[in-house]
Specification:
43% of the residues lie in helices and 15% in strands. It is of the alpha/beta class. It is extended.
Length: 482
């Protein structure tokens, strides 16, 4: 079991002497056994702390053990029940199994029978819990403003889950339109600060001479036009989250003041003399590579290391498998509702276009396209004729379309091979190598668009992601395409 908590086993047996025997059978096993004698005590113990497995006698003094079993199943409690009874009959066994029992053993039984059955029950429950957790994790297709269930986005969701509770600074990177502010908002809403302010500042949208005032505030008369005191984002975000979007656009002089603010939590308003202290969680974002900006002298290296504590890289839409269709369906429904239109879905040829298109503007571009379609058209289904430029010119093509054909072998001839001294056949490569070359070539021909390459190869994009991870780790992935 390693360092994991020892599984707990609840023994429900009204005969004290038998209970002692069963506890002795299990004494050397890595279980914590709790013994109760009645059905009411069993239900109370289950409610107080759910065990990993229950050894349940059917003939209890206050109720039939099947009532407990049915209660466990009706509440869908994650525990395995092993029924033990002296009244072993086919009828009892069938009824117990129908009620959800994992196994059924008849008194008297020896230590080996009990230990093996219980080990199997606990292992089954452990695996069931693991699978359900994985299904819940991988099955998330909506997450704090995000729509999508692709593997790249599941990785993003898991990082947000892990980082949200910390005060560590998060640096979100991604192309324009990938949802960096949505990510920052998700971090805030997932955090203990969710009920406190979330304040966002776009460093690229505010003039440089006003940026310091926007962040730190100013006092009355600090500069021409400062007719009243102004509370900056730093003060408004106290106890909450301050999101600095497009941080790489910030002026170098202001970067030094921001660094001091991050280090000390203190700042002074423009034109003021009083130092104020706040408790702020920092999240920043950029569509540029911050390290390249550091190398180019446009971003302070010390600020980079202060901010780049937990990086989150948002994948472009072209690398998100079938998410483009999920997002399109969601947006179509929302926009149709807003505009009073009747759209309910995309025609198959439109879905093919959406899959094939590279979406350089990412989700923001997809939003604009769907809004355009809904405003200018109406109907049950979005058709090819409704697509605006440049999607109306997109033609889904086969990967092989641009490939140069190799020399054809003469009809009816067998391939020429030669046998080396070690028994290998010249000209034959391992299937794994061939598969890897085909997949990488397909990705190259699709300009790096993995979902598009997967569609052309007739496999899922998740298969390609899994295989590439295995190749990068130096291993192999022999799973069949799905």
């Amino acid at each position: 079991m390693g360092s994991e908590a020892r599984p707990r086993v609840l023994l429900v047996e009204d005969t004290t002497s038998l209970a002692r025997v069963y506890v002795e059978y299990l004494r050397k096993e890595p279980f914590d056994v709790v013994h109760v004698e009645t059905g009411r005590e069993a239900l109370a113990a289950i409610e107080k702390s759910l065990p990993g497995a229950i050894l349940l006698d059917l003939a209890l003094p206050d109720m039939n053990g099947l009532e407990i079993l049915k209660r466990v199943q009706s509440q869908q409690l994650p525990t395995s029940v092993v029924v033990i009874t002296a009244h072993g009959s086919i009828a009892n066994a069938v009824e117990a199994m129908r009620a959800g029992a994992y196994d059924f053993i008849v008194k008297p039984f020896n230590a080996d029978r009990l230990v093996v059955t219980l080990r199997n029950a606990l292992e089954r429950q452990r695996l069931t819990t693991m699978v359900e957790t994985l299904k819940e994790d991988l099955g998330r297709d909506h997450y704090f403003g995000f729509v999508g269930a692709s593997l790249p986005m599941q990785a993003v969701y898991r990082i947000i889950d892990s980082a949200a509770g910390s005060k560590a600074t998060v640096f979100i990177m991604g192309e324009s339109g990938t949802g960096k502010e949505v990510c920052a908002n998700a971090l805030h809403r997932r955090s203990p600060r969710r009920d406190k302010p979330f304040v966002a500042i776009n460093c690229a949208a505010i003039p440089r001479d006003l940026m310091e005032s926007e962040i730190f505030g100013h006092v009355k008369g600090a500069f021409t036009g400062a007719v009243a005191q102004h509370e900056g984002a730093a003060a408004r975000a106290d106890q909450g989250t301050l999101f600095l979007d497009e941080i790489c656009e910030m002026d170098l002089d202001l970067q030094s003041k921001l660094l001091r603010f991050i280090q000390t939590g203190s700042f002074t308003k423009v034109g003021g003399t009083v130092t104020e202290k706040v408790d702020v969680r920092f999240i920043c974002a950029s569509n540029k590579d911050p390290l390249k900006e550091v190398e180019a002298g446009r971003f302070r290296e010390d600020l980079y290391y202060r901010l780049h504590v937990i990086p989150i890289v948002l994948p472009p839409l072209r690398e998100r498998d079938e998410d483009v269709l999920a997002i399109a369906g969601y947006l179509l429904s929302e926009f149709a509702k807003e505009e009073g239109k009747h759209f309910h879905g995309l025609a198959p040829e439109v879905e093919a276009v959406f899959r094939a298109y590279a979406w350089p503007g990412n989700v923001r571009q997809l939003q604009n396209v769907l809004r355009n379609i809904v405003v200018l058209n109406d109907g049950e289904t979005v058709t090819r004729a409704m697509l605006p430029p440049p999607l109306n010119k997109v033609e889904p093509t086969r990967v092989a379309a641009g490939a140069e054909p190799g020399p054809a072998a003469p009809a009816g001839s067998a391939p020429r091979v030669s046998i080396a001294g070690d028994g290998t056949v010249a000209g034959i490569r391992p299937l794994g190598e061939v598969e890897k070359d085909v997949i990488e070539e397909a990705i190259r021909l699709c300009d790096g668009n993995i979902p598009k390459a997967a569609a052309q190869l007739g496999i899922s994009a998740s298969t390609i992601y899994r295989k590439r991870m295995a190749w990068q780790a130096g291993g192999t992935d022999d799973a069949a395409p799905s």
